[in-house]
Each structure stands twice: as C-alpha cells, then as structure tokens.
Amino acid sequence: MKIYNSIEEFSPDFNVVLTLGTFDGVHIGHQFILKELNSYAKKIGGESTLLTFYPHPRHVLFPDDQDLNLLTTIEERSRMLEDYGLKHLIVQEFSPKFSRIQAVNFVRDILVNKLKTSRLIIGYDHHFGRNREGNFDDLVKLSDLYGYSIEKIEPQMFKGVSVSSSKIRKLIINNNIEEAADYLGHFFFLTGKVIQGKQNGRKIGFPTANIHVENKWKLIPNDGVYAVIVEYKSEKFSAMMNIGYNPTYHAKQKTLEVHVFDFEKDIYGDELRIEFVKKIRKEKKFNSELELRTNLKIDENKIRNLLKYKGLV
Description:
Layout: E1 2-4, E2 16-20, H1 28-44, E3 47-54, H2 57-61, H3 74-83, E4 88-93, H4 96-99, H5 103-114, E5 117-123, H6 136-146, E6 149-153, E7 157-158, E8 161-162, H7 165-173, H8 177-184, E9 188-195, H9 200-203, E10 209-212, E11 224-232, E12 235-244, E13 255-260, E14 271-281, H10 289-309
Parallel strand pairs: 1-4, 2-3, 2-5, 3-4, 5-6
Antiparallel strand pairs: 7-8, 9-10, 9-14, 10-13, 11-12, 11-14, 12-13
C-alpha cells in the first residue's frame, strides 16, 4: 500500500476507485466497503484508494472539546487498511481552511480534477463539504456532469443493529469489550512501547511490561483487569493486563501494565500490540502483597481458562 501525506502528492496513472472517510476502527462496515472497493477495482483494472483526514475533523473544528477518543491511531488504521488490500491511502491534513470548501467545489476540484475519480463507493450516511452540506444525492447529481460512477453501501448490521464507530466506542466505554469485538470484526487493540516501571510486579512473581501509548486521542479501556492477547514481533501470547492506579501500592499515576504468560524476554523499548478479549474485574485495593499475589493467581487461572476455551491459545 502506498501512503500519500496530502492530496497534492497523489497523481494517478490508473483508474481510481475511491472511498472517503475516517474509517476509525476499520469495523465490519468499513471492511465491506473495502471489499467492494477492491472487487470493483479488479473488475475495471483500477486500484482501490481511500481519502481520509487527520486530525479528526471534530478535533479541529471544536478545539476546546478534545473528548473524542478514537478506536485506532492513524498508524494502526494504516496497517489494517493494508491488511484488507487497500492499494492507496491519502492522508489529507484537516484544517479550518479545508473545512470551508463547499461541497460542489470539493467534488469538482478534489474528487474529479485532483484525484481523477473513476468510481466512488461510499457509506450510506456520508456527508462532506462545508458544514457537511453535501450528501449522497448531491454526488449522484454531479456524477453525470463529471463522468464518475457511484455506489452507495448500506449499513452493515449485527444482531439487527447498524454498525458504527461511535457505537463501538460507547460499547468499550461501557465495558462491553466482547460485543465491541463482534461489531469490529476483530478484537479492540492498542499498540505502545514498553517503558521502565517500578517493578512491583516482579517482586511478587508477576513481572509486567509497562506500556506507553503516545497518541493522546487513543481510546483506552476503563480501569480494571483484562484478558488480552499480546502480539510481539508477529508472535502471539496470552496475557493479563491491568489498567489503573495500582491502589495496593498507592500509585499516583495511571499505568497500563501487561503480564505475559510464560514469557521471559527483555523487551524494553519494543512495541507491543495488545488485543482486549474480556474485562475480568474492576481494579481493587488489597491489604497486602500476599493478598494481591493470591488474587492475581486467581485472575491468571481464570484468564488462561477463558483464552483456552475461546481457542485463542
């Protein structure tokens, strides 16, 4: 997959089969669009292309409201899009100036003149242009004038509910980790680097890797203990993760710590991908290190059995 850091960098010499959007989480609805995109591109000898925007428009248009946390960072999203067969990813910086482009000008100047769109495939609820004034009907009206074809993708459903990134975010915020995975079509995950911690876990037989997530907009699950799968250098391991303030040790800073089962490598500075399978319990303060260790062993046994039952180990 080729990545372009602006619309200006993209100069196609092929039939462009284009979709637009944030694609946060690359959930089952996004996956269906990508499948259609790749299928049509193959049919006409073209190449699949996604125009996305960064930062998220809401973070730019409402600078005093930075509460929207995203399912995926732009780096995580890029890797997933490549895995689903996307050939070209255009990451356009979203700015106040860009937000003021009128819908008809966006179609003419960007979709047609710059991106040379041959086929446009978009979700049913897509809006674009200044104040989100443009919609699918506008794209249809302009398609004859500018010579592109267009296809609308209806919402993808799971158990009778239409799938969207915002619904998945709410599920995770409400601790519904397993249901979120059904909507995503994969486990919710985060990536981060292993940093130096206080090594309290090592003293009680549960060494942990402290994870630093650099992106400030990345959604982090609520405090608690989780059954997770850790990916390290393309190899996967079962593990348990604690998110929170380590109340037994009276810590003042929030940490993300993962104890990888049957693992003894030195991984400081390396990157881990952590997939969340299920929340096991809330974070809890214990009266002693012995009590903490006893309960961690209970958590470990529960998580090992859970991951084995699900066929993940």
